[in-house]
Hints:
- 2 copies of one chain form a homodimer.
- By secondary structure, chain A is of the alpha/beta class.
- Helix content of chain A is about 40%, strand content about 20%.
- Chain A starts with a helix and ends with a helix.
- Chains A and B meet through helix 1 and helix 4 of A and helix 4 of B.
Amino acid sequence: xxxxxxxxxxxxxxxxxxxxxxxxxxxxxxxxxxxxxxxxxxxxxxxxxxxxxxxxxxxxxxxxxxxxxxxxxxxxxxxxxxxxxxxxxxxxxxxxxxxxxxxxxxxxxxxxxxxxxxxxxxxxxxxxxxxxxxxxxxxxxxxxxxxxxxxxxxxxxxxxxxxxxxxxxxxxxxxxxxxxxxxxxxxxxxxxxxxxxxxxxxxxxxxxxxxxxxxxxxxxxxxxxxxxxxxxxxxxxxxxxxxxxxxxxxxxxxxxxxxxxxxxxxxxxxxxxxxxxxxxxxxxxxxxxxxxxxxxxxxx
Amino acid sequence: xxxxxxxxxxxxxxxxxxxxxxxxxxxxxxxxxxxxxxxxxxxxxxxxxxxxxxxxxxxxxxxxxxxxxxxxxxxxxxxxxxxxxxxxxxxxxxxxxxxxxxxxxxxxxxxxxxxxxxxxxxxxxxxxxxxxxxxxxxxxxxxxxxxxxxxxxxxxxxxxxxxxxxxxxxxxxxxxxxxxxxxxxxxxxxxxxxxxxxxxxxxxxxxxxxxxxxxxxxxxxxxxxxxxxxxxxxxxxxxxxxxxxxxxxxxxxxxxxxxxxxxxxxxxxxxxxxxxxxxxxxxxxxxxxxxxxxxxxxxx
DNA sequence: CGTCATCGATACGCCTCAGGCATCGTTAAC
DNA sequence: GTTAACGATGCCTGAGGCGTATCGATGACG
Lengths: 300, 300
């Protein structure tokens, strides 16, 4: 004979009321099956849990001990059910977010904060990945969602635009073009460029290069670095010029001046995920991302 | 529909093997009922726990969460069963021991240590009581067992002798009777006595008085104190003489000399308990007490 | 002191449901 | 294209849980 939860539920109710009739009523059964189930439980345990007379029912010492344990087990099961349901709704669990360093500057902190506030029981695991590793991490299930620039997406990955902003020029403080309120990109043809490496940030690299080509020149690349902040630092040191997302202008760095450019290209960032990913947290996160993208578009 | 332990057991086994056929074999059932029980569990929870294809079974995120909880619940139940059985055997639980100060000098520490070593999972609650309160505490169930001198026992209390020892005389160092190897009790007729108060230690008081009367005199009581150690202290100060249990001579107090007495009365101590007491720890304790008494008698 | 009411245990019949057998549908391997 | 593996489903049987009726013991009350 094995113990069943029914017996624990009956036992706890009886231990609480110490009256077979009332306990049975509380359990919405009649008294005889309660008597039998309690007897069966005692038989299985090999322990007398209640001292019964025809006038009074009380717990034995072992019964008191088992009562505490059984009540705890039932409470644990109840909370397990609730938390499992929450887990299935994606309100609890683990969401592994892969982000590329170049894409993390704007979107990541705000989006993660929004999601974390909405689902405090969800655990967020952030890890930096290089862009070309992101696809593989998502498809293999090592990450649930990525934050990146749009790129040649392999089959099975979905993309949702979350943020967009124009490129702008960043110049050393003493540069001749600082005088212009709007910089014509063609004016930068002979300037040494500081850009993102094509290997680790292909989208951004291609965007900058494409912007230059559109204006009739191939950018002369002097330095490459994959950290956007470093690009601005190097420009401030007078080592060259660059085209960077406008939000970088929030860096108030003496020696670096930001200027809008003529016919600016727009750089876009979004979240990317595997269509086959069944992590329920992902659904909730994408809801956040959608709302975040809508709010950002409205605020633009 | 309510969750049953069978479903948890099946679920955990399946989550461990991730194979319906093998899990069913491990559970000594066939595969169809396992499929149905798992489906019923998922239905009750409203949560898909396994991602099944016809080639592969794996846990969902919610399933992993529930697996940890369910395994913990089953383990908790298992340990609850074991500890409840131990509790019923009296190997675990609470034993409330009431002792009288005058009786505690010899028997209590050794007996408690023996019991505590034998049943380390049992909790021992010691409390001092005055002798006349002991009976009531035992009968009302506020204490499980007492250690005391035998006395007029009311109905419903049982007694088991555990220890016995003769009275001996304790004298101030300079006393004329110190020269005698054995003191004749009659010689103490004119000495001032230091005794136990009749109110709190009636048995001991009566024994000493009876011993004196047997030798033809009523003891002249100068001081009363309920602590045996204090009696010896006062004797050492030269305030009088006394008759005390022989084991008190282990007190090596300068100024107090112990001497055997002629035709000594034996003072007896034992354990006392309510026959109606169903605390299983009591049974184990009484076994210890019986063995302790036998060992003491053999060592005598 | 006899009667009655209360309360848990027991007897018996019904019916639900868990388990076994047979089979289906899908998928991957060869 | 065939086959084998595997989980799902349909159907049947039997164990067992529940309800009704009743018993036996024990206080309460007149």
